[in-house]
Design goal:
By secondary structure, this protein is mainly alpha-helical. Helix 2 packs across helix 4, helix 3 runs antiparallel to helix 4 and helix 3 runs antiparallel to helix 7.
Length: about 300
C-alpha cells in the first residue's frame, strides 16, 4: 500500500518501518517500567483495541504526517498485547504441556497468516484496487475518504481489517468466559449446609449483596448457606466456591468436586481452606483466629 501510494519510494517505506521499530522498543521499555496491567486480559484486549484504532488512522492517511505517528502508536501496543497473552497462557496451562500449547499456537498463527495474506492479495488485486481506480465502482462511496488511484483499494481493505481488530478486542469484554479467563470462573457456587438455619437468611442476604458487586458472576446457592467467615474470600480471584466443610457438607463438596467444580471449603477446626479443582493460588489464603476476614 505504501509503495503503491508513493510511486515505490523506498525511503518513505523505510521511515515507516523505523517508526514501527521505535514504537515497539518504546512500548517494551514502558511495559518494563510499568509492569503491565494487573489483570492481563485487560492488557491483551486494550492492546488489540489500541492497535486497531492506530491502524485505522494509518490506513486513512495519505502522507508521512499521518503514517509515521500512526505506525508508531500501532507498534506501541504490541508489547503489551503479546506479553499479556503469553502471561495468561503461562499461568493457565500446566507446565508439562506448555511446550505443546505454544507450538500449536505458533503453527495456527502461521497457517492463519498465510491464508489471510493469500485472501488479501486476491481481494486487493481483483476487487478493491480496480474499484478505486478513477471511474471505479467504489469511488463515489469512498473516493473522498481514501482518494483514488493505486493503493486506495488496499487502504480500504486495511481499514476493514483494522476495524475488525478493534471490534474483536471490544467484544472480548462482552464474553464472560474471556473477560474472566484469569479468574478461572464465571460462576460462584456456595455448598455449605448450615447447621443453624436461623443464620441462613442473614448469610444469604450478605452473599447476595456481595454478589451484586460482581455483576459478571452468576451465583448459585446449593443447600442452606452460612459462610460469614469466608464471604470476604469471594473477592479473591483464586477462590470460586466457598463453604464450610463439616459432616453435613462433606458429601455435597465431594460430589461437586468429582463433577469438576472448583471449591474452596473453610475448615473451622484448622481455620484454613481445603481446595479442589482450583488454579494454584499466588499466595496462601488463611483465616485469622481473631478476624476471619483478615488475609495473611
Amino acid at each position: 500500500m505504501i509503495l503503491a501510494r508513493t510511486n515505490n519510494d523506498t525511503r518513505i517505506l523505510g521511515s515507516i518501518s523505523s517508526a514501527a521499530g521505535l514504537g515497539g522498543v518504546t512500548g517494551t521499555v514502558l511495559l518494563s517500567i510499568w509492569g503491565g496491567s494487573k489483570r492481563r486480559i485487560n492488557g491483551f484486549l486494550l492492546g488489540m483495541m489500541g492497535a486497531g484504532v492506530s491502524k485505522t488512522i494509518f490506513a486513512l492517511g495519505q502522507g508521512l504526517m499521518i503514517w509515521l505517528p500512526a505506525q508508531f502508536c500501532s507498534s506501541l501496543n504490541f508489547p503489551m498485547l503479546t506479553s499479556s497473552s503469553t502471561a495468561i497462557l503461562l499461568s493457565k496451562v500446566k507446565p508439562d504441556i506448555q511446550g505443546r500449547v505454544f507450538a500449536t499456537e505458533s503453527i495456527m498463527q502461521q497457517i492463519v497468516s498465510a491464508i489471510a495474506v493469500f485472501i488479501a492479495a486476491l481481494l486487493a488485486d481483483h476487487v478493491f484496487e480496480p474499484a478505486m481506480m478513477p471511474g471505479g465502482n467504489f469511488v463515489p462511496l469512498f473516493g473522498n475518504l481514501f482518494g483514488t488511484g493505486k493503493g486506495a483499494g488496499m487502504a480500504i481493505l486495511y481499514v476493514i481489517s483494522s476495524i475488525s481488530l478493534l471490534l474483536i478486542g471490544l467484544s472480548g469484554y462482552f464474553v464472560p468466559q474471556l473477560r474472566n479467563v484469569e479468574l478461572g470462573y464465571d460462576a460462584v457456587q456456595f455448598v455449605d449446609v448450615s447447621t443453624n438455619p436461623e443464620n441462613s437468611s442473614v448469610s444469604v442476604r450478605a452473599i447476595n449483596q456481595l454478589a451484586a458487586e460482581h455483576t459478571d458472576i452468576n451465583v448459585d446457592f446449593i443447600g442452606s448457606v452460612s459462610i460469614e467467615d469466608a464471604i470476604g474470600l469471594m473477592k479473591q480471584p483464586s477462590d470460586i466456591v466457598i463453604g464450610v466443610k463439616s459432616a453435613q457438607t462433606v458429601g455435597i463438596i465431594n460430589f461437586l468436586a468429582n463433577q469438576g467444580k472448583a471449591i474452596a471449603a473453610y475448615i473451622p477446626q484448622t481455620q484454613e481452606f481445603d481446595r479442589w479443582n482450583l488454579p494454584i493460588p499466588n499466595k496462601t489464603v488463611e483465616v485469622a483466629r481473631n478476624n476471619p476476614r483478615e488475609e495473611r
